[in-house]
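Structure, all two chains, one model.
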Amino acid sequence: MAAKAVKQEYPKRHDGRGWEELREIEAKVGIIPRADGSAMFRIGHTVAYAAVYGPRDLHPKFMQNPETGILRCRYNMMPFSGHGERVRPGTSRRSQEISMLMSKALLPVLDLKDYPKSVVDVFVELPETDAGTRCAGITAAAMALADAGLVMKDLVVSLSMGHYNGKIMADIDGYEDCDVGISDIPIAYIPTLDKFSLLQLDGEVPKEDLVKLLTLAKKKAMDIYKVQQQALKARFTESHAPKKVK
Amino acid sequence: MMKEHVLKYITKGLRYDGRKMDECRPVTVEYGVSRNAEGSARVRIGETEVIAGVKLSLEKPYPDTPAQGNLMINAELTPMSSPLFETGPPGEQGIELSRVIDRSIRESKAIDLTKLCVKEGEKVWSVMVDIVTVNDAGNLFDAGALAAIAALKDAVFPALKEDGTVDYSKKTDKKLPLLQTPIEVTIVKVGDHLITDPLPVEEEVLDARLTVAFNDAGMLCAMQKGGEMPLSIEDISAMIDLAQKHAKELRKKLSR
């Protein structure tokens, strides 16, 4: 992302939110009929689609693991989705790192031992972005994996926390990240294990504040968790029952 | 197995999803679906879904057209949208899709590129249209082309900063200089039958495919034949007639 600006006053959030308040959230499961599992997650103006294919045969063969299936994620911003200039299609160093982190964030809830030599592919595409894209991607991907019927210990919830001038905040947006220069701390949380499977920091945070921030992150994650669960339940009620066209 | 099944029923005049041979699935066009794009649209044809977005930037013109804007059209067959699409650089299927849609917009002279010149030989607007597949339930050609032209219709110029560079945080209300609205329709031939708006299972068994673009006056402005079997004049004529009929229907879907 863009270089951080010199620290300025930021007495209240530019969009009128409270410091701990999330942007508007929307979740829908089963948005891509062609996939084995799929979901959409929107937080403010960040929208993530996730599709799951598999378990399916893994090629090239040398990547196969005879002990277990593997999880493979691909994160991709649609070329017109970013603020500013067009994002060139194809992978970048950034997108490759995020793809890898997404796999690591999701893997702890999966057990792919029953699928040796196979792969579960998770494709995340972002049609519109306003920061927190990897988090929205992970949150959507967790729902898509559940929709695909994979055995899971739990869902994974992800959001981006912020820290600025001693203040802790939840769900920072693009303006706060790039223009204000708030420290960005994306996390992923697994409720039943009570553990974090993604943790990054972009900026400065004293250790004591980080601990407070993670405690708040858990609380906010539970709000998103409820929305994920509702979306999954809605998928399997009558009016949203899966329809498949091959 | 599936192919035999689909073929058997098509020769009896029955389609996999029960449609008539020349029946199109419901079509919807949604505008303004991605706010960072200068223009965007989502098109659904049945369960097929594509999103197109337009980005505008100031660039140097191509040396052979110093007083014209640049136009680039790209389609991405995302691995998200079908188990058959893979990650990595676009394959021939994706390249063909990009080029067929590009041709309909370029050859119909849909955009007045001369109006995109800021300073001859130095600075022109570059129009970049990206079409991204969300769910492939067949007929990506028609859905992609419709999304591309809808996104162009939706597009507005971004504001400029004092130094003349683009200020992407502000949009003007100035629309792109559009002269034509080309509509592209694909007809496929399976055995002796002509089919509109094919499903993936029908695309797999097709003998030939013809994609035709029509401009506002109903004139043909781009074509592409696909599939392995050759076509007779009678075939081509019948396919164009069918395509034209459907182009009229699709054109109506663009109104807001």
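Chain A has a mean pLDDT of 94.
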